[in-house]
Amino acid sequence: PEVNDETAKKLGFKDNAELVKSLEETTVENCITDTLINSKDFAVKTFPETEKKHYDDLYNEIYSAANQEATTYNAQYGTNVTADEMLYYMYGMTADNIKYYHQNSLKNEAIMYAIFDAEKLSYTEEEYNAFLSEIAANNSSSTATVTLEQVKENYKTWQLEAMMINDVVMKFLAKAAVLK
Length: 180
Fold this sequence. Notes:
mainly alpha
């Protein structure tokens, strides 16, 4: 599409300038995230047990659902699909891929929490609710509206908190970033 105000409005922006600003912010945030996550200077030596348990529990829930789905499928069709195969069918990922993804998520979360604490960042309840509203809006479509309550049902409290802290830290880092 052409780069103009009309295209920007179709994408939900006020005008082309707002679209370009959003793209620039997203690009800076992505560069910062890539740098932090892939940097050897930001190695995470230990993880809080509570946070590690969250991701272990999440993995176990996913694997258990895949196992249940495989059992149901096998009973219905007389096949011998494994939970690992069902994971791949459901998520396009192997069990190892999901574990690796969760390990990276845990590493990212640990880095974000460390920056959040070190920089004494915070957020208000109003900002948190606006963030949840943004998640709801981003997950809504022309045929279905996602409510705040549905967001709270679809995510665990610790996930929403981690996402909020990530958002606060990324905005802080994007403002502090010096582009070369």
